[in-house]
Automatic annotation (TrEMBL):
Keywords: Hydrolase. The keyword Hydrolase applies. Its EC number is 3.1.3.16. This is PP2C family protein-serine/threonine phosphatase. It comes from the Bacteria.
Length: 389
């Protein structure tokens, strides 16, 4: 076994055995002692995906780096290493920190220019992915990395919602997806969930009623009921029926929740759908955007023992599906809030972006490039690129 492999395995072992709250210190020690790197910072993307914030780094507390139009932000968006010359014989190397396409942040290194060859950068990139995996595991034991993601305090409802979410993006052989929620620090009832096994992918997008912690509790109950039914091996119609019963049993019709349930078959592209409320689905195929319409059914929890029926359609390799909650339309210009024209244009405008980057860009386009700080309602955009098998 060669020296480089031994060195990497030793670095991986050091991170795996480090205390959860000391991962940054450990990766910095490994890089300086084993790779002659002069400094290292871990920057985490904030919940709103607007800035990168340091975790226990050498910068002053609270320092932030913009995600747009900065070298660190470009490395985060492209998911590729980016080298930045400093002019003094050193290079800043910005490495994506991600797990299976879920983008957590950037590891920024300072090293002498003559040590930044392709093999070294590739090895550092692999180490950044090891760090990402360990950060995800460490979040079970420490709040350090979650605190770094916060530009301001989350509302209680937002705290409840973010702990339900499966992340912001993923990349797999058959598909890639990304999602964005606003207001990130005060989201109430909108949510999404995804789960895949060997032959199918299930996607759930919910749009809850009410505000604050009560809306989050309603969504939490619904997501848990849907997961319980899905993990029992039930189809989307039965998942909706059991979640409907759970919500009605608790609220007796006083509260309900809209949901769009989709189950994709990898081998055929067949999609089973239950449309129980307001989330809308649009498809970008061959450059054209069109809504995919379904027979509407009752939101979950309105009545006792509602029956749900699955409908179906087919996706093709190269399709991009975009699911939006009803709050998305509130971000469009006033003259077009009654239709899908602005949303269709935004989807077309952002068609060259990755699935991870597209949802946030759509919301910015709809807001007329204004920062969305206090939208009229929760807004959720989920993008799914289908590659097929």
């Amino acid at each position: 076994m060669n020296t480089n492999v031994n060195r990497f395995l030793a670095a991986e072992r050091a991170l795996r055995t480090a205390a959860p709250h000391r991962l940054v210190e450990e990766v910095r020690r490994v890089l300086t002692e084993s790779y002659a790197v002069e400094g290292a910072d871990l920057l985490m993307a904030d919940y709103g995906l607007t800035v990168l914030r340091p975790v226990g780094g050498e910068r002053e507390p609270g320092a932030e780096t913009g995600l747009h139009n900065t070298p660190q932000g470009r490395a985060f968006a492209s998911q590729q290493p980016l080298l930045e010359e400093t002019g003094d014989g050193r290079v800043l190397v910005h490495l994506p920190v991600s797990v299976r396409g879920d983008r957590l942040g950037v590891l920024s290194l300072t090293a002498a220019a003559d040590r930044c060859g392709p093999d070294a950068v590739a090895e550092w990139s692999d180490l950044a992915q090891v760090l990402a995996r360990e950060v995800v595991i460490a979040e079970r034991d420490t709040d350090l990395y979650l605190r770094a993601r916060r530009r301001s305090r989350l509302t209680l409802a937002a705290e409840m919602q973010w702990r339900l979410l499966p992340g912001n993006s993923r990349v797999h052989r058959e598909y890639a997806w990304g999602a964005h929620l606003v207001p990130a620090y005060a989201i109430d009832g909108d949510n999404f969930d995804l789960s895949a096994d060997d032959d199918r992918l299930t996607v759930t997008v919910t749009s809850g009623m009410g505000e604050g912690a009560e809306a989050a509790q309603l969504t939490g109950l619904t997501i848990s009921a849907l997961r319980n039914a899905r993990r029992a091996g039930l189809g989307v119609a039965d998942q909706a029926a059991l979640a409907d019963q759970a919500v009605f049993a608790h609220y007796r019709g006083r509260a309900h929740l809209s949901v769009l349930l989709l189950e994709f078959e990898f081998g055929t592209g067949r999609v089973q759908v239950v449309d129980a409320g307001s989330p809308r689905l649009l498809r970008l195929r061959s450059g054209a955007v069109e809504p995919v319409e379904f027979e509407p059914q009752l939101p979950l929890g309105m009545f006792e023992e509602t029956d749900y029926a699955a409908q179906e359609f087919f996706v093709e390799p190269g399709d991009r599906l975009v699911i939006v909650s009803d709050g998305v339309h509130a971000t469009a210009p006033d003259a077009e809030r009654d239709g899908l024209r602005a949303l269709a244009r935004a989807i077309t405008t952002t068609r060259l972006l990755s699935a991870a980057e597209m949802p946030g860009a759509v919301l910015r386009v709809l807001a007329g490039h204004r920062e969305i700080t206090t939208p009229d309602a929760d807004a959720l955009v989920l993008c799914l690129d289908w590659f097929g098998r």
